[in-house]
Design brief:
With 67 residues, this protein is of the alpha+beta class. It is built from two helices and four strands. The radius of gyration is 13 Å and the shape is globular.
Length: 67
């Protein structure tokens, strides 16, 4: 059996909402991130990729990419 461990962190910054688990939450700040900053989904993706021995989310979507 394979297992995966994933985590993601972002600091708070300017914005008007947060994304958590694919749900938009109105808030007086946002996450400082290259993408939507959804720490829950990104941690889940990292865990699944790790369990499949496919690296991590940063290898598939680097912060230098326009995606």
């Amino acid at each position: 059996m394979r297992i995966g461990h994933g985590y993601d962190v972002h600091r708070f910054g300017e914005g008007d909402h947060l994304m958590l688990g694919g749900v938009r939450i109105d808030f007086d700040q946002g996450f400082v991130a290259h993408s939507d900053g959804d720490v829950a989904i990104h941690a889940l993706c990292d865990a699944l990729l790790g369990a499949a021995a496919l690296g991590d989310i940063g290898q598939h979507f680097p912060d230098t990419s326009a995606e």
